[in-house]
Amino acid sequence: MNRCLLLLAAAALAVVPAQAAKKPGKADQAVKAELLAHIQELASDAYEGREPGTEGEAKTLRYIGKEWFEIGLESGTNNPRHSWFAPVTLIAREPDGSRAAFSRKGRRVYVSPGAVQAFTSGKRSLIENAPVLFVGAARAMPTRAELAGRVALLLDGGQDGSERQNALLRAGASAVLTVLDGERTLDNVIARRGRSGYALASDELGGDLEAFITREGLNGVLAGTGQSVDTLQAASNAADFAPRPLDLAVSLEATTRETRINTHNVIGKLAGRRSDAGAVLLLSHWDHFGVCAEPPAEHLICNGAIDNASGVAVLTEVARKLSALPELDRDVYFVATTGEELGLLGAHAFAENPPLPLKQIVAAFNIDTVAIAPAGSPFAIVGKGMTPLDAGIAAVAKAQKKKLVDGEAANAYVRRQDGWALLQHDVPAVLVSTAWSDVPRMERFMETDYHRPADVLKPTIELGGAVDDVNFLVALTRHFADAKKVPTAAK
Ligand SMILES: [Zn+2]
Asked: How many angstroms separate the alpha carbon of residue 82 from the centre of ligand 1?
């Protein structure tokens, strides 16, 4: 019906010769059927888009827990009070109250309603009667002494405006009041900042206070002083411009509404024969966006078939294969993370409160958005060159007769996947998949179904590469779980 289907059709035609050349064996057919069954289940409407804290989460946890238990994994939380499901508390924050009042020489100055909007990065921020320092476009940063205890009045710089706001706050301003340039309206700002932000409950809160005032609003405040936004702008453009106090004080208050979300990482384990030898970690996020569209759209759920029911499916089938093998040296942990779509939060929570010391993790493999490459595609390493794992991966690829793509194009996505959260904690984490070996193909998915209600299980779903991923991840895990081949935590 649209460009997307045409592209899929074109892609399907393009891979026919490759598929015809290598007929998948019986074992691969069985894996494909299992992958399809998991995706069908997890991406069905009954799971309501797998949003953290919803009934969709409860269903997802039950499904993954049951599958992993039946495969023969044990709980990997290493906490008898929370078998299988490690609690993660998230906080959703959205702007709530905003108040602004101006005064000159102790007398209130009228500001038209709706001309100012204040935001805080904390729960509540308040400043009373702070002197206003006009900093122009902040091309040169005022000194800490100039900014201390003052509100910096900043001329809007469009794109890089927020960068300069942050710089002023870091340099010691009590708050930053930005004069909108007319291209950005207050409604634009509210729409942009009004969306919920998410964080772990354990994260430290800032208390930065940022406010925005319309041109007309500030002209009203300056009325009768001989100054206006135009004169300020002209002054700011002068070569000898220096920040200067205005004869004006401002009180600003902003509050944030907070909602707690109780969610969970699922953690399973396949015990090795030498639990003192460290561990290999495989992870994949189970969460997605829940109900993400509004009527009159017909389909309102972001089912997340490819992102990331496919990844959980691959993770589960890797677990099944590994559990059928003779015991490995090292423990293998399987983690289905929550809150990835809200900022890799489940992976951060795992790293902050891990079931084993992080330095014991020899290698971590993330699995995300994997059902888009045909069978026989080469593999890419997202995170190539960032860990000591590359040589081992190349050796396994050679032994398995798999091709790794040259170059580091897939690294463009390294910050957008759970492995990034682990890398921040010095865990060697990569994503090795066929899905990421062709960046234009991935970008086509991103431009069409990705993060939209269209990411449903389609009859055209391509699972050939996902089956290859299962086999390669099994081989990689066996390699890195072998204490002789990989003697120490590779650091
Ligand atoms: Zn996503």
From this structure: 27
